[in-house]
Amino acid sequence: MAQVTLKDVTKIYDGDVLAVEQVDFHIPDESFTVLVGPSGCGKSTILRMIAGLEEITEGDIYIDDQRINDIPPKDRDIAMVFQNYALYPHMTVYKNMAFGLKLRKYPKREIDQRVNEAAEILSISHLLNRKPKHLSGGERQRVAVGRAIVRHPKVFLFDEPLSNLDAKLRVQMRMEISRLHDRLNATIVYVTHDQVEAMTMGDQIVVLNEGKIQQIADPGTLYHKPANQFVGGFIGTPPMNFIETQIVNNGSTPTLQFENFEVVLDTRFQSTLSGLSGDLVTLGIRPEDIHIGLNGQNSVETQVELVEPLGNHALLYLRTEKNNFVAQSDLLNVPQHNALLTVSFNMDKAQLFHPETGDSLCL
Ligand SMILES: Nc1ncnc2c1ncn2[C@@H]1O[C@H](COP(=O)(O)OP(=O)(O)OP(=O)(O)O)[C@@H](O)[C@H]1O
Ligand SMILES: [Mg+2]
Questions:
Q1: Which domains does the chain possess?
Q2: Among 7, 66, 153, 271, which is most buried by a count of CB atoms within 10 Å?
Q3: For residue 42, which atom of ligand 1 is closest to its CA?
Q4: Contacts of 196 by beta carbon, 8 Å cutoff, 6+ apart
Q5: pTM confidence score
Q6: Among 21, 44, 159, which residue has the most ligand 1 atoms within 8 Å of its CB, making it the best to mutate?
Q7: What is the pLDDT of residues 150-168, one digit of tens each?
Q8: What ligand has the least distance to the C-alpha of 212?
């Protein structure tokens, strides 16, 4: 397997569409790296530049120590799985999987062995004589993965391979691809716009927005220490709540005021915020860190706009005079629609962001 390094990579389409801007990151050998971000943020463009399907405008890409900018796709030893599978409709599953090896003039016996081995790993041995139109979406997806596996590539690239599948099959394929990663000890770069997919599969996640890297981290760090407001809002469902507040520094511990409420910050922020009395700051708090009931200083009176029961918990859509936020509650004490409800913020978990740049003040 192999490692991949992107150094200050920029992609400009047609002279004026800046799709990817100075992207700089390292994909370690055998890592499962996920590129995640909203539609249009440049994920596929990055993957296609690694594959050699798109020219690099500026910067360099390396596989191991070799600069690959000018190496044609077929010589990069990379296999890509596309969202639409791109199977040949007139060929059987076997021939679809064998095609790339045949082009590269592998001996028939070797092709046969590799196709059968991949088919077994993916549990599609019984489908080898069928054509794609006689397969379900999930089965086609497996064939597309099989076609990549038989190549024994240095790096696997996946571009939203599960987005055409229904929710249940997606969960199943998610597990299978993760298992495949363990079994093959493969280096995988996986693109998705689905943050749940990113969090469950990736050991390294690269969050992108508008062509720029927002944060590179493992799932836990992204969730608990988002580098900026974008990441806080993108990772986690429902997203982190944001409230504009004003810093008040009149004792040993700084507090935050909004409307007629005041919440007390914990010691993490003492040095960052001392001397900033009166400044604005964005408070970020996750739904599960807002609890029903009083908690001394950090309580906020709200009105319940909507209750969404979700089986093992409920989401409460709450409103104050000027803010809306979501809290998560158990199903025992679900309030009524329009009820007045006092909630308390668990400030140990709170995040603070610069009100203009959105950068975290907690790092
Ligand atoms: N061939 C092209 N010519 C011009 N602009 C392009 C081309 N391909 C992509 N773009 C633009 O580049 C930006 C990034 O596109 P890209 O396909 O990489 O996004 P993405 O993150 O993969 O989005 P999605 O989640 O919708 O697949 C978008 O603004 C897109 O419109
Ligand atoms: Mg894409």
A1: 4-231 (3.40.50.300), 241-353 (2.40.50.140)
A2: 153
A3: 18
A4: 237
A5: 0.92
A6: 44
A7: 988 999 999 998 887 788 8
A8: 1
